From TrEMBL:
PROSITE patterns: MFS, SUGAR_TRANSPORT_1
Protein name per its UniProtKB record: MFS transporter
GO MF term (any one): transmembrane transporter activity
Source organism: Phytoactinopolyspora mesophila
Membrane topology: Multi-pass membrane protein
Amino acid sequence: MVGQQQTVLPLLAEREFGLSGYTFIFTYVVAFGVTKAAANYVAGTWSDRYGRKPVLIIGWLFALPVPLMLIWAPSWGWVVAANVLLGINQGLTWSTTVIMKIDLVGPRQRGLAMGLNEAAGYGAVAVTSLAAGYLAAQYGLRPAPFLLGVSYTALALGLSTLAVRETRDHARAEAAGHLPRADGRHDHLHSELNSRHVFTQTSFREPALSSASQAGLVNNLNFGLSWGLFPLLFASAGLSVDRIAVLFSLYPAVWGFGQLFTGALSDRWGRKHLITAGMLTQATALAVIALADTFALWALGATLLGAGTAMVYPTLLATIGDVAHPAWRGRAVGIYRVWRDLGYAVGALMGGVVADLWELRTAVWVASAISVISALVVAIKMYETHHRPTTSSAPEGASDG
């Protein structure tokens, strides 16, 4: 659903709606990011209270009008409104799938589970970005690229209703057998935290949770900036729509495929150093993109950006699962995703303002510098959260933070 519009909407803004200010063009990314962030919080709270499956189904109902609104939009306001609905859809559905996989897999392979989940999602973003770009080049910017979304919504709603099973009882069973870490690291994070305390621990107070939240925000700041800015940067060099689609699909393709391995690696090597290295790799990639002016160098930068994101994305989610108690895990995941997905809005606004005041490349340099700062925060503040039991006979809950 996201991939169908990433290549097309920035070009649609310029060519069909005559928008020229970068900040104004990026309003659709801001609308998506803010509403997705809010929906993440609701998804976490409702999934703990009412169960996971109802939230998943409700989320897909919000997606039904999105592709039709994009096809028929007579003004840019319709595009922004469609992205509000898309943000609600993504917040409810993707948060719920994350929580469900953490429920199902148990403590030892959270990284692998998150890698599989995010690989499926961002692999689909890459394929659809490429397909939408091809359809736009062959048949025009509307309606062909957005017909993909019509079929995706119908398929997802059918699968969610008929094939998906409720997983909340798995979390309850894990909570009943939960044992604290042997090092006493999480003794203050008991099962009775209310929603306000979960928010403060995840956002500010608990070192690993708060470090993950800021790194997630910066990661999606880079994604939000790329969503609104990269197609315009590439088009400024005279690249065709289909070549822009190839470049734009490289980032989520490497990101998606890489997570098949990086999530599992975090189960073996630990979380902290993979996150730090991933943020530094993103900073390097953005510097390459800012310096480049050819298709080959931009492809290299997009590939590096995807690799850095693959190192970070599933590992941050696994970190939240390591630390959060099963009784309030859904809320912690939702709050982490609030901060992470606010990065869409922050990146789009920052990119638009900086590009309007200076130029497109300056905005990319600013994002690179922010990524370096984020890596330093993780390196200094976060501790290693993937805590293995000392003996093979230790109960499974003993490895859970």
